[in-house]
Design brief:
376 residues; TIM Barrel; Arc Repressor Mutant, subunit A; 41% helix; single chain; 9-stranded mixed beta sheet; globular; alpha/beta; 14 strands
Length: 376
């Protein structure tokens, strides 16, 4: 399986919590950026020899592309790569970009068959302090319009652990999600990232983050409520009705090959990781003048081992000890630490089926468990 990710670094507004690579001042060079992205697609066509199973437009806000620009990028991909007939083609979008049914219809006609809608919250006061570009009414209109043109494969994002949101208010969020019968949810705990407005508000005591216990309670409620309604928690933050897992993101967690196009985008072929510069003008100049616009590293056996643990333990299937040992034979510290986590009931180890998975308690500590098992 192979996939391609296209990073579109454009946004209308800067959200208070976001530290992704983007700009709100792109109009003067938008055409130039799109030309650079299409050139990178063409330049790298020999890097993937198997048919693409997934195409993912992320960002940023890729729904800010005109319908012509989106269709042009997809045409460039088709010209450079073989694409499977049933390929999953995802477009990240904000609700306010789904107001026009005909725009969504043009996306579908161009090949988009899955939408990832950044709702984040069903409460207006949350959207306001997040500095989101949409309001509550946009959410319901967006979902109605998407279904009207026949796009049923939809996922939304919600954030829990928000300041001043108690457990009952989070439950209201989940009830609203379930009422809408959306087949996929990505739910993330709010984190305070450096160089964000949220970080400044926390440092100046304008905002008090939710405490760890409340965040854990909200996570446990999320898991239990969605399980009751038939959603599979196939990755710590991702829940899907049967048949609606994100094929593209699953490939990341499974260590599959993917190509990253656009400024700041990452690529991985199983052994080499490459990342484009997170600077729009250096990226565009590099493509235009055939200069280097990326860095890369060849992963050591230790790095591949650690990455397998970090991503694999987040999945419902967990990891195979035998496969981990094939990458690198760990030392005794690994086995002792693993047994400790089993005794603490943070990890389940099915020795017969060679499967190591996180328990509910373990999922709250996934990064700590993985890093404790790393080969250092």
């Amino acid at each position: 399986m192979a996939g391609i990710y296209i990073h579109i670094p454009f946004c209308k507004k800067k959200c208070s919590y976001c530290d992704f690579h983007f700009t709100t001042s792109f109009h003067a060079y938008k055409d130039r950026m799109m030309n650079a992205i299409e050139k990178e697609i063409s330049d790298r066509k020999r890097e993937i020899q198997t048919p693409l199973e997934t195409i993912y437009f992320g960002g940023g806000t890729p729904s800010l592309l005109s319908t012509t620009e989106l269709a042009s990028v997809l045409s460039a991909i088709r010209a450079s790569f073989e694409i499977k007939e049933d390929a999953e083609v995802t477009l990240e979008t904000n609700p306010d970009d789904l107001r026009d049914v005909e725009v969504i219809r043009s996306w579908r006609n161009a090949g988009v068959n899955r939408l990832s809608i950044g709702i984040q919250s069903f409460r207006q006061k949350d959207l306001d302090w997040m500095n989101r570009a949409h309001d509550i009414s946009d959410i319901f209109l967006a979902l109605k319009n998407a279904k009207e043109v026949g796009i049923d494969n939809i996922t939304i994002d919600l954030i829990y652990g928000l300041p001043e949101m108690d457990l009952s208010e989070w439950e209201e969020q989940l009830d609203q999600f379930l009422e809408l019968e959306i087949p996929h949810l990505s739910a993330y705990c709010l984190t305070v990232e450096p160089r964000t407005a949220l970080n400044k508000w926390v440092e100046t005591n304008e905002v008090k983050p939710a405490n760890d216990d409340l965040q854990s309670e909200q996570f446990n409620l999320l898991v239990s409520k969605l399980a009751e309604r038939g959603y599979e928690q196939y990755e710590i933050s991702n829940f899907a009705i049967k048949g609606f897992r994100s094929r593209h993101n699953s490939a990341y967690w499974e260590g599959k090959e993917y190509l990253g196009i656009g400024p700041s985008a990452h690529s991985f072929d199983g052994k080499v990781r490459r990342w484009n510069v997170a600077n729009n003008h250096i990226y565009m100049k590099g493509l235009e003048e055939n200069e280097v616009y990326f860095e890369e590293e060849h992963l050591t056996e230790k790095e591949r081992f650690n990455e397998y643990l970090l991503t694999g333990l987040r999945k419902i299937e967990g990891i195979s000890l035998k496969h981990a040992e094939e990458i690198l034979q760990p030392d005794n510290t690994f086995y002792k630490t693993l047994e400790k986590f089993v005794d603490m009931k943070w990890v389940d180890f099915d020795r017969k089926n060679d499967q190591i998975t996180l328990t509910m308690e373990g999922k709250l500590r996934a990064d700590h468990i993985a890093s404790s098992l790393f080969f250092v």
